[in-house]
Amino acid sequence: MNTNISARRVFPSRLRLALLFAGPLLFTSCIHNTLSHQALSFNRTVHEHRVEQLLLNVLRASNREPMALTAVTSLSTSNTKRASIGPVSGTFGALATDLYTGSVSGSVSASPNMAITILDDDPDFMRGFVSPVPHSTIRHFLEQGWNSQLLALLLIEEIKNTKNGNFVNDPRDPEAFSAFRDLLRSNLQYLEVVDDQVRLRVTGSDALVVVRSPQSVLYYLGELARIQLGNQSNGVIPTIDSHGVEEPLFLIERVGEKAGKSGGSVVYRGQFYRVPMDQDSRSLQALAFVQQLINLQTKTVAPAPSTLRLVP
Question: Where are the domains of the chain?
């Protein structure tokens, strides 16, 4: 950034000098705006990285491929600032006829750095990633007011020990899933954590709930992607009853290249995919929930980060 100021005699002398020496203040304001823009850009970068990484792993899960997980551990920038005021020349006084000249110049340069961690190379991370979500975590989300239907659909693999047998949360089988959904909705108010076990009181009995791990939640979303993208011959998309309106739990769509070049879209096998933004669904909330599960279960030990230097 370079700033040059020139003042001519048509202005009063004091005003001319004020314009010259106001340059550093304008330059300082410019630096502040630049740093603020960088901070917001970094924030958007982290957000988009998380959403796109989860979406990419959902697509991998839909084809039963290995997942790859990384984390941005830090974003920083080294800013170099330079400012200078050139010599002021001219004739001062009421009869001055010369041109008053002077200059203010400056520049700002930034060298951004991103520290990233490969998470799934670490055994401690994987141990938490494949372990069932702890009952204390489920109790926390229930007490914090999260939608219980969303939690149940994402977290419950199976409901056992009811008088009518076992019920599996498998959208690939419409009949079985319909029975699971009906049982869940009619008894969801009785979902609770008892003696460190998740239980659902069904007609007087305490049915045992089999809870998923963060990895299996991603695979569950991958199965929903298979159904929507034509890789599954049949199946249903779970919905959440929100004040009488059925909202899909998770939606994904294949889009053209032009439409796909936006935040939240990913390229997988040469095709663009994204979460539809023009429909009422719980897709982004579901992804946010999975991200929180991963953070809660896998942050006790993190591998040493490697540094990726970004060239502006």
Answer: 6-111, 131-300
Phi first, then psi: give them for residue 229, nearest 5 degrees.
-95, 10
For residue range 41-85, what is the model confidence (pLDDT) as tens digits? 777 777 787 888 999 999 999 999 999 888 777 666 665 555 555
Please enumerate, as own/partner, the contacts of 283-288 that have beta carbons within 8 Å and a separation of 24 or more: 283/248, 283/249, 283/250, 283/251, 283/252, 284/51, 285/147, 285/150, 286/150, 286/154, 286/221, 286/249, 286/250, 287/51, 287/54, 287/55
Note the pLDDT tens digit of each residue in 151-172: 999 999 998 888 888 999 999 9
State pTM to two decimals: 0.72
